[in-house]
Amino acid sequence: MTDQRLHNSDKRGKAANPEHQPGDASSNRDKTYEFFEKHDHYWIVRHRKNNKFYVVWYDSDRKQTRRRSLKTRSSSEATAKVERLIRDGVQGDPVAALREGPMTTFAQALDYYQKKYASNLRSADAAVIAIKHLKPVLGAYRITSMHKQDFLEFAKDFQDSGHTLGYTSRVLSVARSALNQAENDGKILRAPRVPEIRGKAQKEAEPLRGRDMTTAEIALLFDNNVERHLLEFLVDEVHSAARPEALLETHTSRIDWSRELIDLNPAGRVQTKKYRPILRIAATWAPWLEAVPEGPLISYDGVAVRSVKKAMQALVKRTHLTGRINATSIRHSIGRYMEDQGVPDKQISVFLGHEPVARKRTTRRYSPTNPYHPDYLREATAAIERFVHEINEHSRKWDLLKPFALKPGWKAKR
Are residues 188 and 247 in the same domain? Predict the structure, then answer.
């Protein structure tokens, strides 16, 4: 977008005014409309008498300039509407798109979020259930009139009906994501604040989504696995402690063999508070990564795997292990293992993606939290290698030091 606001009549020449286009020879319109700003193939003008804003475009078929009312006297609202037209790829007459208007109710924001975003989440089922809780109570509320107290009252009633504090907080996190995404996509002007109802102590007291596991238990996961893509996931997970979605979205192009580093953040992806780190490739991981064909790190018949949730559930069932075990259990186990091994807290935080690595060139020479520093994650990577060796000692089926190799005598022991 180029901002071409003109503040006095001397600057409103015919060359800059969108009303002066081929096929439109009238000049008296200069007295009626005032040019405001240009957005790609649309312009915004303001009526001099009633101060209403209009969107203007050049109709090449009619060979004339045309306009539609934006039905607002607010410059910020007019700009937001036209920016939404551009973002949605609207061309020519925008009347149909303008009729849709911005979202007004919370239910619209929830429906939009479910359709465009929630279905792609690892926790898609949980998000859909949360939306079913939110819509009957808050769905009819107008977004512009929603306040913090509305969500606090919902939380109180929700807990009074028997839901835990932690689950209530997760439901509200879906409300927060839906509203923030609607604002980011230009569907609403401003997202109301959805409060976090848990304090720091309450967050820390909540149980992990997946319990810690011993290296012997993790070995059982390997021994009972029968799927190649899940074997690849397990190997990558015991070496990276990554959040499952991070591994599933990683590409071999993110491997830098010259420095023995792998970047778990896809190219072009903006880092969120759940950082995806750059890791040093452990010696036990390197042969597995070298065996991966160019493309997704984890694939099935050449196509990137989108989720391992159901495969992990089936695997855990076959192991007959008790307690809450899922794809994040290995991640939690590695964090605890590193603590027991005396790995510095800073390295654990960077390795697990709890804080970002230093990337500025000026800090590379001095900061051990920078990937190009020779001591970057040195102790953490050494701990990972010990962790994998311990799993391999317990494993009876797969030799984790040799990609896709079965241990001698495995068939005889089954």
Answer: no
